[in-house]
Design brief:
It contains 12 helices and 10 strands. Helix 5 links the parallel strand 3 and strand 4.
């Protein structure tokens, strides 16, 4: 027979193992979420590769949106991506402009995908881009005010073409999107509905530009998108701003400091942690974040 003391020891061990398992499960779930940022100044991978990588690692970044600059030689991208991958950081090819929804805009889109196709075909597995991240803001194009209906449709055509390109490259497609696209409707060749829902349907993940500096406001403005993403089994990354802004005091964490930002993001995370449509944060962007107050 097993003594009472031995039974007690076994029970204690089982409890400890179970607790560790639950704890590890939570850690693993959080580790699977994205913590992303944008690097617009691509010359930094040439001039300060180690500095950029050290910064990204110190901030626990696991996804970087790297602006494509075709003037920079491929070997710099290869070196940077290889080192980033070794640190657990996926690098996505970043590009896009409001001009892409204009009449001649598709040429610029095609140039990106032609460059990316050639690059990945000539790079080792650890040197390749892991995906594509488009930052196309059609509302910054003059057509948004002069003919919003047509501009919205041009934007939808653009994303449809981009999805076809990324599918052929076997890469995931992500996009930036303002939180207020859930107030914009469309009715055209793509059907009808809310533009935010349509965008979420087309891509693997959406980075919502939830540019506010208080947790309660961020939670409120992304609620529709996260609920919809859960419904259609897609993912939303909540993005915040760290750069100076003249759009209002509540837009950016620029004047608040990083400690305050982290506190607010922790509150947002606690609110959405159990929502399947939520998949982490993106901080805009490397240059301003580097110079942020503690």
């Amino acid at each position: 027979m097993v003594s009472r003391s031995l039974k007690a020891i076994i029970a204690f061990i089982v409890t400890i193992v179970s607790t560790l398992g639950l704890t590890m499960g939570k850690v693993d779930a959080m580790a699977m979420q994205d913590k992303a940022t944008w690097l617009w100044d691509t010359t930094k991978i040439v001039e300060d590769e180690s500095g950029v990588l050290s910064f990204l690692e110190s901030k626990d970044i696991n996804k970087l949106y790297l602006q494509i600059n075709s003037d920079i030689a491929s070997n710099y991208y290869k070196s940077f991506i290889d080192k980033a991958m070794a640190k657990g950081i996926k690098v996505y090819a970043l590009d896009g402009s409001a001009s892409w929804v204009s009449k001649e805009g598709y040429k610029m889109q095609d140039q990106l995908f032609d460059w990316l196709r050639t690059y990945n075909e000539n790079a080792a597995a650890t040197e390749q881009f892991s995906g594509v991240h488009l930052d196309v803001e059609p509302y910054l194009n003059s057509g948004w005010s002069s003919n919003q209906v047509k501009t919205i449709e041009s934007y939808q055509v653009l994303l449809t073409r981009a999805k076809g390109d990324t599918d052929r490259l076997h890469l995931p497609l992500e996009v930036d999107m303002p939180f207020w696209f859930d107030e914009i409707t469309y009715k055209n060749q793509f059907g009808q509905g809310l533009l935010a829902d349509w965008v979420i349907d087309q891509v693997e993940s959406v980075s919502i530009m939830a540019y506010r500096d208080a947790a309660k406001d961020i939670i409120n403005i992304v609620e529709h998108e996260i609920n919809y993403a859960k419904k259609v089994k897609k993912s939303i990354i909540i993005s915040v701003e760290t750069g100076a802004s003249d759009e209002g005091k509540n837009i950016t964490f620029y004047d608040d400091g990083e400690a305050y930002m982290n506190k607010q993001l922790a509150q947002v995370h606690r609110h959405y942690a159990n929502k399947k449509g939520y998949n982490g944060f993106a901080i805009h962007h490397v240059d301003s974040w580097m110079n942020m107050q503690p």
